[in-house]
Design goal:
Chains A, B: Its cofactor is FAD. 2 copies of one chain form a homodimer. With 709 residues, the first copy, chain A, is an alpha+beta fold. Helix content of chain A is 55%, strand content 8%. Among the domains of chain A are: 243 residues, Butyryl-CoA Dehydrogenase, subunit A, domain 2, CATH 2.40.110.10; 152 residues, Butyryl-CoA Dehydrogenase, subunit A, domain 3, CATH 1.20.140.10. In chain A, helix 11 packs antiparallel against helix 13 and helix 14 crosses helix 20.
């Protein structure tokens, strides 16, 4: 941490952009501007690191701080290289520690000792990733999935009967939804729960190998019960997927009659969790074990539900389990932030090659390529931090009942399906780039990055495969789009089509582009001024989402009338673009959240630097999709070049602030636990430089052969 | 394998492209073309899988086949999840097995029992990755680095004295080049070897912590000797980095006097190798232990070398060790091919969601997104296979002396620096995409992908950090570029600048683009016809490399005259683009090799499909860099859209051939060792479908609630 008092020097931020010469156009020789030096102090403006750190902690700052204190203790931390069996037992023990510390009951009912604090619960839970992702996920299985299913899908009887032992970990449990044959398509699982009127029991059965429950945490070893998802069948009718509370093992750990299973064995990561498979052969549970908030079966086998539509009922049930996606978005963002803290700290100390001087080697982060590899990822991580806090506020509003309409729930699910894919993929990309940026050192377990990457890997496919989630978002966007015309007569639709065509003619055949080219010609400066304008960025990002969706909707508008197979084929031919449109939407959500967050930043220096970070994020998105903007006539070639030129300039400006920007994440050495980010590299560099300097001064350094001739 | 006899049906390949309607332009509704069905036979044309497989095996096909036989045996294979200590001992034992099998001496001199077969040696060595990447790399350390250094940097005395025990593994050894403080910049290592005339010994010394040797295979446990790279100092002059043969440990495994070290401990992968650190405190070795092919010290301390320039000498010495990069390119390509074989086989069997039918779920690979994720990576892998074989032929020509001029060696090094980064990054991306495409199953160690990815991770930064290697390529391209003008008068340079400016005006301000737009308008068909033309692809790819280099050279042409620091800053401001230019060059090399390989494909059906694969690779590169082509006026927006449309079409055409294309890699179940690619998934799917079909036929399937009303 840098002394914040020293940061109260007069800010020149308002003027600075004007005094930095614009990146020369490509037909001029680059002016030889010396690269920023690592040992230089951050240039004005300056970040108030402590204040910014507080802002990044977000709405549940105090809870996060307390959770980070817990994560800083070795007893909750991962031991790198621990064998799987020991790691699993260790994490089980850590769950007990969490219970003792009263750290995991925030979301449960007050009458059972909880706090009914849904947002705070997730905030605390996410921070466990700092200690060990296996601990985060195994806690999530126990209280966020198994317990939450009883809480949200069960009723008062289930809460009273099952929750206390779940909360206390007396009953570790599995969340038995996924099957070997069905993951993303939960509605099609094969397990059946057939009601037997005579005995008033449900008969849980696994009809074939593909219907084995699979990949379930707590299933291989520790789970003594499970919430099992199965097709509820009564009176010959299949009422769709419902959840049942099913005891699994006896006190000695043996499977109960009719139940069997397998260990999933070693995984790519998260080996502190005992994932496994389960199968059921006519296993009987009492009628009352149906978690019946959204569907009940009377003694005589009559089915009833507060939600008439089976489809809506299914999605409502699944919707109550959205918190997994919320917490993965937060934990993935934390992992990216940790990776960048490690790599940027190391990159600020480690030196290699001496292009600019005969004696001093360059600090890695002074290389443009190194900056290009890490700083845009830092900008994205910042965007995610802001987006995640808004997401969590929304989640809290829905689950606390403050804002819990159908629309609120649907919005929450769409946000979850949009943000979780981007942040989990970003975590993997960032961990990998950080690993590579640290070279061989990054590959050592002692520097933490590889272990985190191994654990986070599965975040991109569990709690909803990322591609499937983005497709959900796209379908929602298509629905919203078509709703604009739902009540309109054919004329309105026709008018829309005409306006689209006109727009295409305007954007698509070069007229607007040509005008832009003429206006821009010779003035990179003017192009840059416009690009750094918030509204320009917003318009470009928004426009892309809308245009992509409108285009696809146009292509699909007659598909509804086709036979099912042909309609599916038409949809399939647009699937890749649909998913890209959903990604564009999610990127826009992140950009908007960042921009709103920026509005709450009060310190002028911090605000200036953060604006550059936001611009780097926004323009980075536009650069990534530059071809689209060019093809669709939204940017002239001249202006498109200015995007990259301005990104180069932003990166140069941000480079001196890189350390402050990662320091503001607030991770301490006990959280990072990376040798190379401990200051050891700075010591090594200082020692080496002192060695050569002393010999140079004493004249005892051997003369290079070349100079000796 | 499919019966190749049945493939002699009349080929319609020549006509097919014309009869498939072009992808409709974006303002038309997509015609409802049913997606290809997984159970359909590959459409005409057909691939002759066996013939193609033979072609993919390349120049050393028989050696590869024999090496794959070895790799198919369990005793050489990795045991997933084996603890590090046991894994290390197992791999050491496997090295002994390889010696017993006579599998690793191909490159050594005939008089010592070798075969002097450099290309065949690498081909065999690469295939070890199928058994265990740790085995590949530990073998590489012993015979490809430690042994090869003695072979290529030593002279007859060293060969006679040291090679037999290295070849027999009596002396396992480390290749002690990298230091904690210097990896990519080998010239700046800190270890010194100071000649003591009185005792006729070299004194090896580690002056500070940053100069500890680090990340060395065989250093933590097994190495009893090392080739140590150090600054050779004699008579007060530093003659630069040279290699010394240094004994490390006594018979009991203890360090010799003055030597110490540390275990690097657990790594992100390759844990069958005992990487570690070494340091030397005034360790004395006889004068003869200098590996003196490129530099000798006489008894009186006089230094001499056949290469006068210290810089050229250094690069010549390092150049002899290029084989590491060659073999990583091959092994990385094999890993990508394995990953795709697993994911595509699984994607052809696994079903999820039933959009197109009321009963049958879709095979994953029938989803457009799934195809988009895997098939372009398959095309790149094919390009790499062809490029790697040419690379290996070049390597063999240089090391066998068949074509061993200075230019040949420089070309070989540039090719190595270009191809190794692309293929090792591609391996990681492909392994990750394959892992995600297999969902949760992909995360299980039993399905192999995660373990391979963990092991291959470090390939992108060892034997030359990928970014540093690409920068080397870029510098070579810049040098070649400026050489065009080296002997020209100022007038030639001036003319060049004028022609560049004229070209920019033509390409850059929309004139050519506008003309293209007018020509293309309404004719996606014409645009596609041109894009699939080989020469068009070649021109687009070549043009980009040349234009990027010319542009950067133009910006840097006055930098030479600047003071060192300013010149370095100017270079640094172009570093990112330089590296991108090098990547473009490497992509072009791959595309050209693929195209040459295609010319040798004789079977018409195979040739047709392979042409589509090559087109997918080439157009995929153009799509990736579409913004550049648009900005620089090489493609009109209309034509740019046709690139994506044609890629969509190519992918649709290739989809039925996907299985054949991965089968042609020729991996057997013993090589893949992935449960999900074993046919188990097909059995599960068949069982589940039979279950439902039987109940549907018998009328005993419970009625869905919706239908029951």
């Amino acid at each position: 941490m840098v002394d914040t008092a020293s940061r109260s020097t007069p800010k020149t931020s308002g003027k600075r952009p004007a005094t930095v010469p614009p990146k020369p156009a490509r037909d001029e020789v680059a002016a030889p501007i010396p690269a920023p030096r690592a040992d230089a102090q951050p240039a004005s403006p300056r970040i108030d690191v402590e204040l910014l750190g507080r802002q990044l902690l977000g709405t549940w700052a105090d809870i996060r701080v307390a959770a980070r204190e817990r994560a800083a203790k070795p007893d909750l931390q991962r031991i790198e290289g621990q064998p799987m069996a020991e790691h699993r037992e260790r994490v089980l023990g850590q769950l007990k520690t969490l219970v003792e510390q009263g750290a995991v009951h925030k979301a449960f009912p007050k009458e059972l000792g909880g706090e009914e604090d849904h947002g705070g619960n997730i905030a605390a839970f996410e921070e466990l990733v700092l200690a060990d992702p296996s601990l985060q996920i195994k806690s999530g299985v126990q209280w966020g999935l198994f317990g939450a299913a009883v809480l949200h899908l069960g009723t008062e009887y289930h809460h009273r009967t099952f929750l206390p032992d779940i909360m206390s970990l007396k009953v570790p449990g599995a969340f038995a939804m996924t099957e070997t044959g069905h993951g993303s398509d939960v509605a099609a699982i094969g397990t059946t729960a057939t009601y037997d009127e005579a005995k008033q029991q449900f008969v849980i059965d696994t009809p074939f190998r593909g219907a084995w429950k699979d990949y379930l945490g707590n299933a291989a070893l520790h789970g003594t019960a499970a919430v099992v998802f199965a097709q509820l069948i009564t009176k010959g009718v299949n009422h769709g997927v419902h959840a049942f509370y099913v005891p699994l093992r006896n006190a000695k750990g043996g499977f109960l009659k009719g139940i069997g299973g397998e260990d999933d064995g070693l995984k790519g990561g998260l080996n502190g969790i005992d994932n496994g498979r389960l199968h059921f052969t006519n296993v009987r549970v009492p009628r009352e074990n149906l978690l019946n908030r959204y569907g009940s079966v009377a003694e005589d086998g009559t089915y009833s539900s507060p939600i008439a539509s089976p489809g809506r009922r299914f999605f409502t049930m699944l919707g109550t389990l959205v918190q997994g996606r919320v917490s993965l978005d937060g934990a993935a963002t934390s992992a990216a932030a940790m990776a960048l803290t490690i790599a940027i700290t190391y990159g600020n100390q480690r030196r290699q090659f001496n292009a600019a001087s005969d004696t001093d080697e360059e600090v890695l982060l002074d290389y443009q390529r190194h900056q290009r590899r890490l700083l845009p990822k830092l900008a994205t991580t910042y965007a995610q931090v802001f987006a995640h806090d808004e997401f969590l506020v929304k989640f809290d509003a829905v689950f606390s009942g403050k804002a819990d309409t159908d629309d609120d729930r649907q919005d929450l699910e769409t946000i979850a399906a949009a943000l979780k894919p981007l942040s989990t993929w970003h975590a993997l990309e960032t961990l990998q780039e950080a690993r590579e940026a640290c070279g061989g050192a990054g590959f050592l377990a002692e520097n933490r990055i590889v272990g985190l990457r191994q654990d986070l890997d599965v975040y991109v496919t569990f709690e909803g495969d990322n591609n499937v989630l983005l497709q959900l978002v796209a379908k929602r966007l298509l629905t919203d789009f078509s709703r604009q015309f739902a009540n309109a007569d054919a004329g309105a639709m026709a008018r829309y089509v005409v306006s689209q065509t006109a727009e295409r003619a305007y954007h698509g055949t070069g007229l607007r582009r040509l005008a832009q080219t003429i206006a821009d010609f010779g003035s990179t400066r003017r192009a840059v001024a416009e690009l750094r304008d918030e509204e320009t960025q917003r318009e470009l990002l928004t426009d892309r989402v809308e245009a992509m969706i409108a285009e696809i909707a146009g292509r699909l508008r007659d598909a509804r009338k086709l036979p099912k197979a042909d309609a599916a084929a038409a949809f399939n031919r647009n699937q890749n673009e649909l998913i890209e449109a959903a990604r564009a939407h999610a990127e826009l959500l992140q950009w908007e959240a960042f921009t709103r967050g920026l509005a709450h930043t009060t310190d002028p220096g911090t605000k200036q630097v953060l604006t550059w970070v936001r611009d780097l994020f926004g323009l980075g998105l536009i650069e990534k999709h530059l071809a689209w903007y060019l093809i669709h006539g939204r940017l002239s070639p001249q202006r498109a070049q200015a995007v990259t030129a301005y990104i180069d300039r932003l990166i140069e400006r941000l480079r001196p602030h890189a350390q402050d920007l990662v320091d503001a994440f607030g991770y301490r050495p006990e959280h990072l636990r990376a040798q190379i980010a401990s200051g050891a590299e700075q010591e090594r560099q200082d020692e080496a430089r002192a060695y050569y300097a002393a010999r140079r001064a004493a004249g005892t350094l051997p003369v290079p052969e070349k100079a000796s001739r």
